Amino acid sequence: MKVLPHRVFSSVLGVLLLALVASGCVQFQPATLYTGVEPAPVPERPRKLTLAAEPIIFQDQTDDTVWFQDDERCTQGRVTSEVTYEGERAIAVSWDRGTEGCEWAGLGVGWDNWAGKDLSTLLPYAAIEMHVRSKEGTMYGLPIVLTLEDYSGGMGFAYTGNRYFERPVIDEEWQRVVVPLSAFDLEEENLDPTNVKQLMFELQQSGSIYLDEIRLIFYEEPEQEPWLVEAPRPDPTALPIQLFGDAFINDNGWGLVTDNCQSVEITDEAAASGTSALHLQWDLSPDQCYEAAMGVSWDRWYPVDMTGIAERTAIQLDVRLPSGTASDLPLRIGLEDYGRQLSLALLDARYAPSGQFTSAWQTVTIPVTDLEGIARTLAASPATVGDLPTAEAQGGADLSNVKQLVVYMVDAGEVFIDNLRLVENF
């Protein structure tokens, strides 16, 4: 056999390859040795806050950089000199999201005379510091979503959780609340941190507070000890689930407030079991009283999918009156989803074993299917959770996105509640 010289063989091979490519039999695909995405570099920490952005958000100003929602049914706010933490003025705001027609309640500050602020280099290093106190009484949470908005309408959100408080509760003494910029969710509504327009306060539930000395400060999260690992969350659908015994589950209850409209407190004077119970007193007849409510999340404020257990679940609680008897109580109890849709049921004596409420403890059991809209939602639900009808379409809470159990107090009344729980409904 005759062997072709190397240069001749190479020439023939080249001709063959060109012919194959031209005929479409061979296609070349681009290839890379590394397909990973390079992480975004961490910006360098500015020497001074003022080199990145104006740090003072609110400090005594009375111009149009401070604004309040113009519907006084939902938000009543003003800049005042009556009560201040420091300087001459503070922000006073009261709100009630429970008022009919209130889709939003809040205020905003377009600091630095509405100039666009570049906070991108501050995100790992800064926080929003503010000083807060209640107008009257004690608040066991601060139901405010801090919102940064940019000039294209993008937004970033952070909830003012209790872990950012200087003390466990908000009361009539000023305290410092610090929310890191790193806590803001920038992805959901596509905030552009290089062109921030304003800081908004989206007000949830109801409250009445003063705010003062709001500013950006340098802040870095303290390092956690290695052993401080969050325990695994229990299955939020594994019944029974105790929501209140001697305390709220995971300390995630709210509404323990004493003011002119309601008094909800944990008392050791009467308990169905254990050492403590809830004592509720309320009167919504005064003009300034729009709502009295309390609630509890049983999965640390994560959304709970109850679609698989709703038909076999009941809300159970021990109830007694201070005195006398009643055929029903002016309380509505049920579920709220993260779209703010509610499914509630009146606390009717048909759920009590004796057929009426008395001064003796009784265990009341309300099937979840008795809550408004739940039965319709379940009846209309297709086989797959992904195709569930919306809560709005069915007139009740979205069972795939449950936020919390809520209790709304109506008119006026007084009652003791203990052992609030979710149980199997046999």
Q: What does the largest sheet look like?
A: 6 strands, antiparallel
Helix content: under 10%
Q: What's the average pLDDT?
A: 87
Q: Quickly count the helices.
A: 3
Domain module count: 2
Spell out the CATH superfamily of the largest domain: Galactose-binding lectin
Number of strands: 23
Question: What sort of overall outline do the alpha carbons produce when their principal axes are compared?
Answer: globular
- What is the architecture of the largest domain at the second tier of CATH? Sandwich
What is the CATH topology of the largest domain? Answer: Jelly Rolls
Intertermini distance: 90 Å
CATH class of the largest domain: Mainly Beta
Strand content: 35-45%
What's the helix-strand series? HEEEEEEEEEEEEEEEEEEEEEHHEE
Taking Cα atoms only, what radius of gyration do you get, to the nearest Å?
Answer: 29 Å
Query: Structural class of the helices, strands and pairings?
Result: mainly beta
Describe this structure in words.
This protein has 426 residues and is mostly beta strands. The protein folds into 2 domains: 49-218, Galactose-binding lectin (Jelly Rolls); 241-424, Galactose-binding lectin (Jelly Rolls, Sandwich), CATH 2.60.120.430. It has 3 helices and 23 strands. The strands form 4 sheets. Strands 1, 3, 4, 6, 9 and 12 form a 6-stranded antiparallel sheet that branches. Strands 13, 15, 16, 18, 21 and 23 form a 6-stranded antiparallel sheet that branches. Strands 2-5-11-7-8 form a 5-stranded antiparallel sheet, with no helix packed on it. The model is unreliable at 1-29, 31-35 and 381-394 (pLDDT under 50).
